[in-house]
Amino acid sequence: MGQQTMRLDRWAILSSALSLLVMLGLGCRQKRPAPSPGPGAKEVNEVLATIDGLPITSKEVDPVVEQWMAGFADRLAQWTPEYVEQRRKDKRRQVLDQLIAERLLDQEAQREQIAISDQQVDQAIAQMAAQQQPPMTTEQFLRHVEHSGRSIEDLRGQIRQQLARQALCEKVTAAVEVTDQQAMAYYQANMAQFYEPEQVRASHILLRPSQDASDPNQQLATVLAKAQQLLAQINAGADFAELARTSSQCPSAANGGDLGYFKKGEMEAPFEKLAFELAPGQVGGPVVTSYGVHIIKVTDHKPAQQLTFEQAKDRIIETLKAQQKEQLLRDFVQSLRAKARVEYKVR
């Protein structure tokens, strides 16, 4: 149900070992198979910039740009050609600047003689495999990589580079500290951030009516009848999570239907109303939304609360550390740029 009941974007594919640089947008871009060039992509391998004479080319930049543009495929028809081209141009410059930052970090990591062992690369690959949905073994993940047309050696080389960048960035930011006084000052200035509205955690079983039915009303009645049958099984003692795994037509079925916590306003009204009425452990439904027919089980209900400083302290410290590290890294990359000869070949 998109942001309303699915919220699937929380599942990241990237390794947690690389998460710092992903957060900062420096040095941890994951390569993916390049899509076919879009209408604005250049076919020639054009030199876009050089760093101390070493080129960055359009074949490195444009596939990333076109993949990003493909995410807006459903909107492109609504945009003017001029606006589409401006979005592509802006993204191209952003990707180019990111590649420049990566190259500068790579050069500095070499100067610092930062070495990454085969064991570290193996551990990163194992983490990436474990974070797939569903989780994979290392062997399954590497087969998947090969089937996608990528070389295992290329992947290992890229991960080795990324880990070296990460080690360099950790060295640069090692001295970052946040005091309790700084954390308290942030808390007092931003107390609204630490107000948590009422929240519910729920699981659901989603049954979708067929979109091809000749009689939509009859199809909905059929699906409602099936939902009543499932509800009767649950009331008779059947395991909700197991029924969700076998019967739900939502991606959350893999997690027993669990949707996590949500606030009022994040779900469609019929779903929200029932979810906030049920007590933890209760099952209700069926209810109908634009996604289909739902049976809902509430597993937790948190009242609204203002977090105390002690409750928020760890989160605040991590936030302030992340902000300081980000600024340090941006300043560090700028210092590397100032010492290098960076030339843009296109505007």
CATH architecture annotation name of the largest domain: Orthogonal Bundle
CATH superfamily of the largest domain: Porin chaperone SurA, peptide-binding domain
Strand % is: 5-15%
Based on secondary structure, the structural category is alpha+beta
User: Considering DSSP H and I runs of 4 or more, what fraction of the residues is helical?
Assistant: 40-55%
Domain unit count: 2
User: What is the average per-residue confidence, as pLDDT, rounded to a whole number?
Assistant: 87
CATH fold-level name of the largest domain: Triger factor/SurA peptide-binding fold
Distance between the termini: 41 Å
* Model regions low in confidence, pLDDT < 50 over at least 5 residues: 2-37
Please count the helical segments. 13
CATH classification class of the largest domain = Mainly Alpha
Q: Give the strand order, joined by hyphens, for the main sheet.
A: 5-4-7-6
Q: Give the total of beta strands.
A: 9
Main pleated-sheet profile: 4 strands, antiparallel
Q: Shape from CA axes?
A: globular
- Please tell me how large the radius of gyration is: 25 Å
What is the helix/strand order?
HHEEHHHHHHHEEHHEHEEEHE
